[in-house]
Amino acid sequence: MILNTIINNRYIMKAIKIINIILLFIILVCCKEKVHEEIMIDTSNIEVEKNVCADSIVESVSYIPLETKESCLISNIKNLIIYDSLVYILNRTNGDEELLIFNLEGAFVQKVGTMGNGPDEYLAIAGFCINPYDKTIELFDQLKKKKHKYNLIGEYIKSTNISVNCSLTNKIRYISENKLIVVNDINSFGEPLIYVCDGDLNHVKIIYDPPLKFDGGYQYAKNPISDYSNFLIVPLSNKVFEISNNDLKSVYNILISSKYLPANEVKEGGEYEEIMSSVKEKGFIQFYSIFETSTSLLVEDFNYTIIINKKSNKGIAFESLNPSNNILPFSTSSFLCVYNDSFVGVLTSSDLETASEYYKKNNVVPTSVISNLIHYNEFDLNPILCIYHLK
Fold it and tell me: DSSP assignment, residue 14?
C-alpha cells in the first residue's frame, strides 16, 4: 500500500511538471506574439492637416550657427551624428567626403583624418558611425577596404581590413556590442539592401534584399533607420519594421493615404528613377525617412510629415509647417538625427529667407533671437543646427 502511494505520487508530480512546462511554453508564445503585434495607424488616429504652426507641436528649440571658415565649409551634409556633446558631419565637397567635428556651441573642432594613400589615411569615406561601446569614431573606406578608428576628437588609433563592399552604404550603426546594421542604397549590383555583421563587416547575415532589382545605386531613403531603436523602413512600403533576432518584424502599419503602393503594382526591375516616376504618376507614395525619440515616432513620405505619440498611437500628419514668432520651421528634408530626446535638423540661408518673407507677408514680428538669425543670413555661411524638442 505504501509503495503504491509513493508510485502514484511520483506520477502525479511528473504530470504536474509536464503541465507546468506546457503552460510556460504557452505563456512564452503568447508574449512573443504580443511583442510583435502590428499596430495599425490610420486616419482615425491621426489628424491630417495642410498647414501646421510650429509652436503647436514644438515645445522648445535651440539654434546653433555652425562656425564658418575655409577649413570647415559645408557643401552637402551626407550624415550627421551628435554624440558626447560633439557634432560629427560627413560633408561631401567637390566629389569627395570629409568628416568634420563641431562642438554644441557651433565652434569647429577639427577634421577627422586626411585623404591620401598613407597607412593612417583614407582614399574615400563610404560611411561612418560612432562605436558607443569603446567610444570611438569608425570610418569605412571602400577603396582601401579598411575601417579606420579614431578617438572622439578625431585622433587616429588604427586601421583594420574589411571584407564587404561598402561602396553603396547609406547608413551604418551599432545595434549591439560588435554588431552593426548596414543599410545600402538600393541597387542591382548583387549587394543586399540591409544586413547585420560584426564590427569589421564580417560574418554578414542578410536581413532584407528587395525582390525587385533596380539599376543603379540610388538612395531609396534619406534616413532609413531610427537612431533610437532598431526601427527601419524598406522601399515601396508604408510599414515600420523592427530588427528582432536578425529578422524583420512589422511594428507599425501607417495608412495616411489610400494610395500606398500595393506589393503587386511593381513586378519588374529597371532604372530606379523610371520606376519611381511610374509610382508617382499612379499617385502612390512611400516612406523615405524615420526618426524616433522615447515618446515620438516621426515618419516622412512624399506628401506628409507624420508625428505619432508612441504611448497613445495617435498623432498628426501635415504637408507643411509655418513659422511662429519664436520658432523657425523645419522642412521635411532638414531632419538629420536625434539627440537628447529631440529631433535635429539644419536651416540653410534659403530657409531663413523663406521664413523672413513669411513674417513680412503675414505681419508677424519675430523675437529678437529669430531676427538675429535672419540678419545673420548670408549665402556663404554654414547652416544653423536646430534641436527641436516636441510637445
Answer: H
Residue pair 183/192 in contact by the 8 Å Cβ criterion: no
Summarize pLDDT for 270-323 with one digit per residue, the tens.
777 777 777 777 777 788 899 999 999 999 887 889 999 999 988 899 988 888
Rg, C-alpha atoms of the chain = 25
Q: Indicate the pTM of the whole model.
A: 0.86
Instruction: Give the full edge-to-edge strand order of the sheet including 287-292.
Output: 46-53, 314-322, 305-309, 296-301, 287-292
pLDDT of residue 341: 92
User: According to the 3-state scheme, what is the secondary structure of 193-225?
Assistant: CEEEECCCCCCCEEEECCCCCEECCECCCCECE
Q: Judge contact between 300 and 287, C-beta under 8 A.
A: yes
Write the CB contacts of 203 (distance below 8 Å, at least 6 apart in sequence).
197
For 132-149, write each residue's pLDDT tens digit. Answer: 999 999 999 999 999 999
Three-state helix/strand/coil letters over 355-385: HHHHHHHCCCCCCHHHHHHHHHCCCCCCCEE
CA angle 196, 202, 205 (to 5 degrees): 35
On whether the CB atoms of residues 196 and 175 are closer than 8 A, the answer is yes
